[in-house]
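thought: user wants a sequence for this fold. calling inverse folding tool.
action: design(structure=
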């Protein structure tokens, strides 16, 4: 066996090990442009927004912003159609895609 064959075989084994380790690693979350609210801030309080901050849920409506935004008691907001906006009253529970803004 020549030196070239030994080096090629060693490189192939190293590549196979790297691919094997990478395939067994847990998946990493992917930041989507425009979805994660920009760069994360350090320090106390709530850090940057993530897709987990958006959820479909039934929440009590604490306020409304014309023409189509509902505001829940926890400060999350939801945009609805104009017809649904007129139907829902403050104090009602509304199913919606609530998100921090």
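)
observation: tool returned 101 residues.
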């Amino acid at each position: 066996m020549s030196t070239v064959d030994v080096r090629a075989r060693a490189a192939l084994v190293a590549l196979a090990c790297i691919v094997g380790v990478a395939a067994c690693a847990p998946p990493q979350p992917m930041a989507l442009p425009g979805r994660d609210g920009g760069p994360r801030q350090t320090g106390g309080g709530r850090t940057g927004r993530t897709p987990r901050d958006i959820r479909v849920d039934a929440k009590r409506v604490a306020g409304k912003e014309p023409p189509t935004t509902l505001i829940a008691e926890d400060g999350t907001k939801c945009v609805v159609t104009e017809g649904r906006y007129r139907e829902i009253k403050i104090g009602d529970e509304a199913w919606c895609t609530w998100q921090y803004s």
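thought: summarizing for user.
answer: Here is the designed sequence. The longest helix spans residues 3-24.
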